[in-house]
Amino acid sequence: MSLTSAHSVVAPSATSKRVAGTIIVLYALISIVPLLWIFATSFKTPPDSIAYPPKILFQPSVEGYCNLFSTRTRQTPEYINSLGPATGLCEETVRKRNMVIAGPSNFMPRFINSLIIAFGSTFCAVFLGTMSAYGFSRFKVPLADDLLFFILSTRMMPPIAVAIPIYLMYRELGLSDTALGMILLYTAVNVSLAVWLLKGFIDEIPREYEEAAMIDGYTRLQAFWRTVLPQATTGIAATAIFCLIFAWNEYAFAALLTSGTAQTAPPFIPTIIGEGGQDWPAVAAGTTIFLVPILVFTILLRKQLLRGITFGAVRK
Amino acid sequence: MLNRTADSVARATPEPLARKVRGISDKGLAWLFISPTILLLLAINIFPLFWAIYLSFTNYRANRPNEVVRNVGLANYKRILGDQDIWIAMQTTAHFVFWTILLQTLIGFTLAWLIDRKFRGHAFWTTIILVPMMLSPAVVGNFWRFLYEPQIGLFAYAVSFVTGIPATQIGMLSNVSLAPWSIVIVDTWMWTPYVMLICLAGLRSIPEYIYEAAEVDRASNWRQFWSITLPMALPFIMLAVLFRGIENFKMFDMVNLLTGGGPGSTTEVASITLKRQAFESWRTGYSSAFAIILFVAVFGLANIYVKALNKVKQR
User: Fold this and answer.
1) Where are the domains of chain A?
2) Nearest to B52 among A34, A132, A165 (CB)
3) Which residue of chain B has the CA closest to A311?
4) Labelling A219: which of A29, A195, B163, B289 has CA 20 to 30 A away?
5) B6 touches chain A (CB under 8 A)
6) According to DSSP H, which parts of chain B are helical?
7) Which of B126, B128, B239 has its CB closest to that of A310?
8) Which residues form the ABC transmembrane type-1 domain (chain A) (predicted)?
């Protein structure tokens, strides 16, 4: 058990560091393979994507991205020859398969829905969350612990269980398949996270700042606005990114409560099909575009990640 | 903007009250700040919950809104507790929750323990390891369907490369005995980093001087691990298990896209059964009762668990 020596007075030995490093690097490389495979598949042609054995080296193609953004119709070679020269890279790629581009696909509208709903609900959740967190942090609220637990417990319900009555309620209110309905729902789910995280961040800001400001003649609200909010910016930004990631990734509610106009990307991407089954390069292209923002956020967030995923329970 | 809202509220209220709002009526301000959140949660979470409780005592079907709704008392609950399919779904859920938590805790803790050695570049590789857990389980789960394809999929190819079993025979999603493991593998792949991150915080919270003292007492490395490292990291491990347990008990998105509950109903976890009953068979009353039972189960188990966790923390 030479590895256990890491925690002795002496720092971990060079050998144990090397062994640990090798295992971690191996694990990291293996665990990242599925993501690299998604990325690679998005640049394959459909025949290359389903080749056996799986192709690691291949001629890159933009066909997946072309198929993702367009709908196509099959035509006779004679018809295609009678057309003028291809007007773009996609048109050219598609014609090689005896097809012409018929129009844009639904991917763009679904992607825009995702953006609107994710940003809208994040804004509302962070707005409400900041106010409540400040309230809980600075004032004696009767039953504060019970209220905070109540706020957290709303997160324990299985989404499908919530979806049944929400489905009926939205049907009555005309909110089914609307962006507004989804924003309200995601705000309600995210606000519990926002309150818990932000309360932790605001608790860490010394009360003395506000008290000093109030002695200088600021009202409580002005003190909140001028001293607490600027101090809490990092916390608010981290919370916002967590809410954004949740809303961006959410599938269960979106799949059950939206079908057309307000559908987001997660339920849409699996429905991308080509001729004879799933069009994997197009699915991979959609997945890649969908995942890139989250990768960027993960890297930005890595210092706050722990706090976010444990509702502020672990702060390091 | 907040200032303006409060001011307009202040102007609209009678003078003595206005002075309080504008001034330092902390009580008023506290409620002004907290009530919007509580109201939203009441409207979107609690009201629907009560509606679901009401529906669970009826024979309501959402696809026939005009039919007369009859009160059936406890009949739905009785039927669920006697329903063989429900018990099978609960067993599938238990299998899924048990194995994912076991694997994630073992692998996650080991990884954290290795990373804690602070070898060169550990921060970079930690970030790489963390990536899968941030991604959409639905979108990634859907792509795993491709990786699992018996012949063309990368997973089947890698397994056959290592074991020598022909790739065509590795039907992770079509084989009745392999399918329950296919969802365990994807979930473990996605969420091991989560457990790892929490365990890492636990390991880093152990003060160095305890190890120094142990070293002075000539405790073996093995002994140090069992009587210092593990007990002191335990509250963190338990916290990670709590969060993963709740999440996996509710598991829907990844499984729905990966197997959809199939083949047959071998991977039909509770949420999938619930969805089939509620949105495919449209047995709204019946599925509401099942939803309530699930909610009570999660809530009850989580409460018991938190009590145990607090005991461990106080030790």
Assistant:
1) 46-105, 108-266+291-309
2) A165
3) B243
4) A195
5) yes
6) 2-12, 15-22, 26-41, 47-55, 75-82, 84-115, 122-134, 137-147, 154-163, 179-204, 208-216, 221-224, 230-249, 253-258, 270-279, 284-314
7) B239
8) 111-301
User: Counting beta carbons within 10 angstroms of the beta carbon of residue A218, is it exposed (0 to 12), middle (13 to 18) or buried (19 or more)?
Assistant: middle
Q: Give the pLDDT confidence of A161-203 residue by residue, as tens digits.
A: 888 889 989 998 999 899 999 999 999 999 999 998 999 899 9
Give the B window 186-245 contacts with A, CB below 8 Å.
189, 192-194, 197-198, 200-201, 204-206, 211-212, 215, 221-222, 224-225, 228-229, 236, 239, 243
Convert the pLDDT of each residue in A24-77 to its tens digit: 999 999 999 999 999 999 999 988 888 888 888 889 999 999 999 988 888 888
CB contact under 8 A, A52 and B151: yes
Residues 153-192 of B with CB under 8 A from A: 153-154, 157, 167, 189, 192
Name the CATH superfamily, with its identifier, for domain B75-314. Answer: MetI-like (1.10.3720.10)
Assess: ipTM above 0.95: no
Amino acid occupying residue A213: A
Global pTM value? 0.87
- CATH number assigned to the domain covering A108-266+291-309: 1.10.3720.10
**Residue-range domain boundaries for chain B:** 2-46, 75-314
Q: Would you say A72 and A91 are in contact if contact means Cβ atoms under 8 Å apart? A: no
**What residues pair up with A71 in beta bridges, in sequence order?**
A103
Short-list A43, A70, A47, A73, CA closest to A59: A43
